[in-house]
Amino acid sequence: MATAQVPASYAPIEAAPPAPPARPRVVVVATAFAAGGCLAFFVAAVGLYLTLRSTALADHQLWIPEGALIPMPQPNVMLLALMMSSVTMHWAVWSIKRDDRPHAYLALGITGLMGFAVINMAAYLYSLMHLDAAAASPMPLLTYLITGAHLLMLVAALVFGALMAFRALGGQFNARQHDGIAAAEFFWHAQVVVFMFIWYAIYITK
Prior knowledge:
single chain, mainly alpha, Four Helix Bundle (Hemerythrin (Met), subunit A), elongated
């Protein structure tokens, strides 16, 4: 009795299909370049601030204008909130890597709320400092420049995180492909590190 011939093009039943190719991590690489550029700007700006401060103090010049105030409670609360938000942002990536979408959405939401809380606290801090940008000392102008640039970076991180959250809601990220959420986490951590330098250089050493 003749047996049926199996075409050679047919794969055995037990053979698993090949894994899809890994998606290039273009977003992560681009985010790394953007974060690096931001860090370079803040290193230069904070370095200029510290240099001018050192020169003014060495020449016995007034660095902080009269009537200006730099309170510590608000910057401390901002630093604590940003450090906590780094934990929740990492929680979001950890959750999406395990296809735990409810916890990923919750973590992203908490991170966004903390970011908005920091912006609100910064606005309140500005109202307390009474810094005149037209003062003879360059301290007020540099303070507004550096802290304002960080707020712009924080807003960019919030928008970036929100866009990645909407993409996650659309099902574009999962345990295998989560580069967008990872890139948002990288940029978020970068702006937290920037604020740590600002907190020490401006609010601590003044």
